[in-house]
Design a protein that fits this description.
The protein is mostly helical. It contains 22 helices and no strands. Helix 19 runs antiparallel to helix 22 (410-422) and helix 20 runs antiparallel to helix 21.
């Protein structure tokens, strides 16, 4: 009898069943009584319920209908924009109401983040489309959730601009993201964590180390609060990157050497890969070329099948630095020339100029004054078109004058390159 009673208690009561069938059952009662009952007894429904929860995570929205329908429609909507001139994409995003869906905005942001290190200019375009469409999301969506979504879109835009080297515009984008967060009443700490996480990378590029570490700490605490191990790993890696961008190479190397203790390679392979990749770069920048060369085969193996094209460009750059540090000048020159061209093709003028300065150090080391003059003439027009501050332009002018007067030394070329890496910040 006790067994039968237990079974009976697990079923819906007559009263609950009656109110459900008559349409009088409250939504909360439906969620807490009817849904669990069916999920407990039907493996197929339970599997589809888990799929729906996964879709809600991907689309970043609590509404099950948005997750189930809009997320699946988003690729078709994105196809309407693809392969059109960007100006026409903007016009359609502004005028075509069928595109004004949460799911499409979320997909654009996902694509922007995926593209940011491979094609940052495209990542900027995708984020701007997301911002434009999110401004048209209507009454079907909670306005505070829309504010969160728009904050994320501006943060993604700022991150892509940061990678492009447009740090002043990136700063403006993050200011707007923060403004939107202050207006939102959702209390969604996951969104806050992502914004602080991305902004910490900008502060690292700007060499504002205390702020970069503070933001990464704030993001880390929120990721831990949400039990988001992926975010925890990302914040730790951001701390290391901020230290590297700020010239604190020893501290960055120490953190990266111990980072595998915090990151399980089996669960967070991407972050483990980039931790080793960043360690390689820090060792090279610190002049520890023999250690970097020992690590190089492991990084090549980790990036063999999954690296983004821009990752491979930066890896090639590091290979050139290692070759130069170990006296293999012909191989280093080929690498630096290849990398400079790749950055120019991607409209990444700041990085192209930095690669050119590495090439200048090589030329100065070999006394190749004519090659130095030619290189100086190439750098200035590219650099002048970027958002760089006055001190950076002065440094480049000094470089150009030193080349013209045949007095550029290896020490000066490396000093200028180190200065520009440390001082990578916007005008003003």
């Amino acid at each position: 009898m006790e067994k039968e009673g237990s079974v009976e208690e697990s079923h819906l009561s007559v009263e609950v069943l009656a109110r459900w069938l008559s349409g009088r059952l409250e939504h909360e009662e439906l969620l807490h009584q009817v849904v669990p009952h069916f999920l407990a007894r039907c493996p197929a429904c339970r599997e589809r319920y888990e799929e729906l929860r996964r879709l809600q995570e991907e689309v970043g929205h609590w509404d099950e209908a948005v997750a189930a329908f809009e997320w699946r429609e988003a690729p078709q909507l994105l196809a309407l924009l693809r392969d059109r001139p960007y100006e026409e994409q903007l016009r359609l995003a502004d005028e075509y109401e069928d595109l004004h869906e949460w799911g499409l905005v979320q997909l654009l942001l996902q694509k922007s983040r995926e593209a940011v290190f491979d094609d940052p200019a495209e990542a900027v375009n995708l984020a701007q489309l997301a911002i434009l469409i999110s401004a048209h999301l209507g009454e079907a969506y909670d306005p505070h959730w829309v504010l969160d979504l728009r904050a994320r879109a501006f943060a993604y835009l700022g991150n892509a601009l940061r990678v492009l080297g447009e740090l002043r515009s990136a700063e403006d984008a993050f200011l707007e993201a923060e403004r939107l967060l202050t207006k939102s009443m959702t209390g969604n700490t996951r969104v806050e964590a992502e914004v602080w996480d991305l902004k910490s990378s900008l502060r690292g590029n700007q060499r504002r180390l205390p702020e970069a570490i503070e933001l990464a700490d704030r993001a880390l605490a929120l990721y831990k609060e949400n039990k988001d191990q992926h975010g925890v790993a990302r914040s730790l890696l951001a701390m290391a990157k901020a230290l590297q961008e700020s010239g604190e190479l020893k501290r960055a190397i120490d953190l990266l050497l111990h980072l595998p203790e915090e990151i399980d390679p089996a669960r967070e392979l991407d972050f483990f890969r980039y931790a080793r990749y960043n360690l390689l770069g820090c060792l090279s920048l610190a002049g520890r070329h023999a250690e970097a060369e020992q690590l190089l085969p492991e990084v090549r193996r980790l990036f063999r099948d999954s690296a983004q094209p821009l990752d491979l460009v930066r890896l090639r750059w590091t290979e050139g630095s290692i070759d130069l540090g170990l006296g293999r000048t012909a191989r280093a020159e080929a690498a630096f020339r290849e990398v400079q061209k790749e950055f120019l093709d991607r409209m990444m003028g700041y990085d192209a100029a930095l690669a050119a300065l590495d090439l200048a150090a090589l030329y100065a080391q070999e006394g190749r004054t004519e090659d130095l003059r030619r290189l100086a003439g190439e750098i200035m027009p590219v650099f002048a078109s970027r958002e760089v501050h006055r001190e950076a332009m002065v440094a480049l002018i000094l470089f150009q004058q030193a080349c013209a007067e045949e007095r550029l030394t290896v020490k000066l070329a490396r000093h200028l390159a180190d200065f520009l890496r440390r001082e990578r910040r916007p005008r003003g």
